[in-house]
Q: What sequence folds into this?
């Protein structure tokens, strides 16, 4: 059995590019940036960014077009595909992720479309609850069934 599976979580590097296949199905191309942190030999913390090309087809492409924009967080599950072509006598390659599942990343609550979050109302402290009153009862250990 062979496995070709990719999972990434990152932010879109550009707005989705949408086009249609001759069959009428939509195709969305997006760039997703991921990063990782590690300590180098000198003990300094280093951030390394990686950029991925992701392609969505059909209903997922429609959702990408409707809900995602540059900077949006997205979790993608898919498979890797490498394409090759000849340009000026040189063979070129492009590896991309074909998105099969997608989840949107977190959104800031109350954020208007394309703007900063709306101001939140000031919170007031709730009134302290009164503790319940329990009757004074003495328990005889012989009354416990176990």
A:
């Amino acid at each position: 059995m062979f496995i070709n599976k990719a999972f990434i979580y990152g932010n879109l590097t550009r707005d989705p590019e949408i086009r249609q296949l001759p069959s009428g199905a939509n195709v969305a191309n997006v760039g997703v940036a991921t990063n990782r942190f590690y300590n180098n030999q000198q003990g300094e913390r280093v951030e390394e960014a990686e950029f991925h090309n992701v392609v969505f087809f059909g209903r997922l492409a429609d959702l990408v077009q409707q809900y995602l924009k540059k900077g949006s967080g997205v979790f993608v599950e898919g498979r890797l595909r490498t394409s090759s072509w000849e340009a000026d006598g040189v063979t070129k390659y492009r590896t991309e992720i074909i998105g099969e599942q997608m989840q949107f990343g977190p959104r800031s609550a109350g954020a208007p479309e394309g703007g900063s979050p709306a101001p939140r109302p000031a919170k007031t402290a709730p009134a302290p609850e009164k503790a319940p009153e329990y009757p004074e009862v003495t328990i005889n250990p012989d009354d416990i069934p176990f």
Remarks:
- The radius of gyration is 27 Å.
- The first strand starts at residue 6 and ends at 12.
- The beta strands are 6-12, 17-20, 26-39, 45-57, 73-87, 90-104.
